[in-house]
Design brief:
Number of helices of chain B: 10
Shape of chain B: globular
Number of domains of chain B: 2
Low-confidence stretches of chain A: 1-12, 26-42
Structural class of chain B: alpha/beta
CATH architecture of the largest domain in chain A: 3-Layer(aba) Sandwich
Distance between the termini of chain A: 85 Å
Order of helices and strands of chain A: HEHEHEHEEHEHEHEHEEHEEH
Strand content of chain B: 15-25%
Strand order of the largest sheet of chain A: 2-1-3-4-5-11
Number of strands of chain B: 15
Helix content of chain A: 40-55%
Largest sheet of chain A: 6 strands, parallel
Distance between the termini of chain B: 84 Å
Number of strands of chain A: 12
CATH topology of the largest domain in chain A: Rossmann fold
CATH superfamily of the largest domain in chain B: Putative cyclase
CATH class of the largest domain in chain A: Alpha Beta
Order of helices and strands of chain B: HHHEEEEEEEHEHEHHEHEHEHEEE
Shape of chain A: elongated
Strand order of the largest sheet of chain B: 1-15-13-7-9-11-12-4-14
Helix content of chain B: 25-40%
Radius of gyration of chain B: 24 Å
Oligomer: heterodimer
């Protein structure tokens, strides 16, 4: 046997080294196991998160769309299933005093994080101060709370998506024909940031049709005003194609109806804003934007996803709770929803 | 002349290629759906697991000879998915005066049953759910459908379902864990719609009756939601509005348990609304499309749950007959649990 190939006989010093190494390994393994248990424990830890909704007044719609507060709350109730979160839901009733009372209650409950949805900047400042004093982290929706990350709509981007879709449609289908643009809806509603939406829509409409003349039609939030206003425009522009950027879906549907009444369906194309259940449905509940209705002059609507606020904000909340850095501002990824993608974006599961 | 012919051939080839985008665009199903563990020609799926040994072992569950009904009545007015409908029409012409046949005055009656196949207590077959145009075992289904039926993956390829059934009582699990949330429309305790049944929940349900799943089993999940079906037509809208059911994690775990089927007292077995609002019936994909594991919907589970509670035994012989319906994607079934 080759002596060089044999392991050297353990000497006293080497034995001691081995002993220490073994001991160290044991300590390391124990620490790792403990550490893992700690990590597992951290994953299993449940948090209490409060969500103060803007309003749940029946029928009250939010952000100049057709969504209601109930849909926002339901999105939180569904999204929270994914997380180790116990959700406490408040209704701010769009009221400063109620909002302040809600945050006081949440502080008493010692919630881990507070999601504030209130369109009142001054009250949000006070709420931010209260939460900071109680060392509770905050996340704001649509209206800032000082020092809190903000999840927000981008009305100008949404308007631009609608305008560009219409502009592309006009350039593709009506090249060389007299065409005008129309903005219709609650155009001056600053509280819903509709002026931003309208500005974006104007920019988008001119994307492919830079010389397009755009007419604003102010409805003051009443979709019933769409028909008479649009009828006047149609009457003064016979033989003209009309690209209609509606500021909400109710106005979009009213615009289609007005074109139909005037016998001018072939002269119009409409894009709405919101994509709530009034314009998209399911297997049984067929609505305007539907795969079986591809020929509609309502070529689509820009999604605002208020029915997914829970799914959008709770992941941010979880990152904050885990001590991770989050972006100071996260913007809704608005998208044009058409008959071609509505069932991809909103897979139906209805049976009714 | 020869050069001209060559030119014509090239032009024709280019035209042919250009005119065949649909063919070229067909999905490569090998990248979309995993292969079957039973080989590239398999059209049977998980009933391959019901071997004679599995059936023989399941027969040991028959100890009292007690038969427990596990299907709901099939008739007009029951809750139905989407645009599905049922309509029964009785043909009884020989009952009319003078219409009886022969000196023996024979009369007869027959039914016309108009319906889709996925109604009432029913089985989802291999051809029911796909991803794009790809179905179980990487089948490019576009090549295998006619106007009338499928020419591949039909029910006629299924083997027996004579195996062991295992019931997990999610109502009891949730009550025991102190996390039960019911629905007021249920006359007996039921989990609320949207409740995600997890792997841990199923394991707790198995542990409750000291059972472990074994290859070839059929898992039956009692949620209580079926009580709304029993009240038809009064609670059809509530029943249809959603359901408690298994989530993605549980679905994936069940695949590893090598079971044959999962059934539940709900219209879709999986949780609705789903865990991700942008996914459609994803657990159906996980079980049926990817693993060939059947889904059995609208199973009547309350009687077996009561039986399990009474006897502290949650296993039974699963007796279900599926017609050899050629080219069908599924069919209504009758199920009995024999103890």
């Amino acid at each position: 046997m080759d002596r060089a190939a044999q392991p050297p006989a353990p000497r006293k010093g080497r034995r001691r080294v081995c002993l220490w190494a073994g001991l160290a390994s044991c300590v390391l393994l124990t620490w790792l196991a403990g550490g893992r248990a700690l990590v597992a424990g951290a994953q299993e830890r449940r948090y209490t998160v409060a969500f103060a909704n803007l309003t749940e007044e029946p029928g009250a719609t939010l952000e100049g769309t057709g969504f209601t507060g109930r849909e926002v709350r339901e999105s939180f109730a569904l999204a929270v299933r994914r997380y180790p979160i116990d959700l406490v839901v408040y209704d701010n009733h769009r009221d400063a005093q109620k909002a302040l009372a809600n945050v006081e209650d949440a502080i008493k409950r010692k919630v881990d994080l507070y999601i504030q949805y209130l369109d009142d900047p001054a009250t949000n400042v006070k709420i931010g101060q209260s939460l900071r004093a109680a060392r509770i982290r905050a996340l704001a929706i649509n209206t800032p709370v000082p020092d809190a990350p903000l999840y927000t709509l981008d009305n100008r981007a949404a308007g631009r998506i609608a305008g560009e879709a219409l502009s592309e449609y006009g350039a593709k289908n009506w090249r060389g024909l007299p065409t005008i643009g129309v903005l219709v809806g609650n155009l001056r509603a600053q509280e819903h940031r509709i002026p931003d939406r309208a500005q974006g829509a104007s920019e988008g409409l001119k994307r492919h049709l830079p010389a397009l003349k755009i007419t604003p039609l102010e409805t003051q939030g009443n979709p019933a005003q769409v028909a008479p206003l649009l009828a006047k425009v149609l009457a003064t522009h016979p033989g003209t194609k009309v690209l209609i950027a509606a500021m909400d879906d109710a106005s979009a549907l009213a615009a289609k109806s007005a074109l139909d009444s005037a016998g001018r369906l072939a002269d119009g194309a409409v894009v709405g804003q919101g994509v709530d259940r009034t314009v998209h449905g399911g297997m049984n509940d067929r609505k305007e934007i539907d795969p079986s209705n591809r020929g509609s002059i309502v070529i689509g609507s820009v999604a605002f996803y208020l029915d997914r606020y829970g799914y959008e904000t709770l992941p941010i909340a979880m990152r904050m709770l885990r001590g991770e850095t989050v972006a100071p501002r996260t913007v809704t990824q608005h998208r044009l929803i058409t008959a071609a993608n509505v069932f991809i974006e909103y897979p139906p599961y209805d049976m009714n | 002349m020869r050069r001209k012919s060559l030119f014509v051939v090239i032009v024709m080839l280019v035209a042919l290629i250009a005119s065949a985008p649909a063919v070229l665009a067909q999905t490569d199903c090998k990248t979309v759906v995993p292969p079957s563990p039973w080989g590239p020609n398999d059209q049977t799926g998980a009933t391959n697991r019901v071997t004679s040994a599995v059936t023989k072992a399941a027969a040991a569950e028959i100890q009292e000879g007690k038969v427990v009904v596990m299907s709901y009545p099939l008739g007009d007015g029951i809750p139905l998915f989407g645009t599905r409908f049922t309509k029964t029409i009785l043909t009884a012409t020989t009952l009319a005066p003078g219409a009886a046949l022969g000196e023996n005055q024979l009369t007869y009656m027959e039914d016309t049953w108009l319906s889709q196949s996925h109604v009432g207590t029913h089985l989802d077959g291999m051809g029911h759910i796909g991803r794009k145009d790809c179905y179980y075992n990487q089948t490019p289904m576009g090549k295998f459908i006619t106007q009338n039926n499928m020419t591949k993956l039909g029910l006629e390829h299924l083997k027996s379902f004579a195996t062991r059934g295992v019931l997990v009582d999610m109502v009891k699990v949730y009550q025991a864990a102190g996390k039960f949330k019911g629905n007021a429309a249920c006359k007996k305790p039921c989990l609320e719609k949207g409740t995600v049944i997890t792997k841990a929940d199923i394991e707790a349900g198995l542990k409750m009756y000291n059972v472990t799943l074994r290859e070839g089993d059929i898992l039956i999940v009692h949620t209580g939601w079926g009580n709304l079906f029993e009240q038809y037509p009064a609670q059809n809208a509530v029943y249809n509005s959603g359901e408690p059911g298994i989530g993605k994690e549980a679905g994936k775990w069940l695949v590893t348990q090598k079971i044959v089927a999962v059934g539940s007292d709900s219209w879709g077995v999986e949780v609705i609304p789903g865990e991700d609002p942008k996914e459609a019936f994803i657990v159906h994909n996980i079980l049926l499309t990817d693993a060939g594991i059947h889904i059995i919907e609208n199973v009547r589970t309350d009687l077996m749950a009561e039986e399990a509670d009474r006897t502290k035994r949650a296993t039974f012989f699963f007796s279900m007959t599926v017609p050899k319906a050629v080219g069908l994607t599924g069919n209504f079934v009758a199920i009995e649990g024999i103890r």
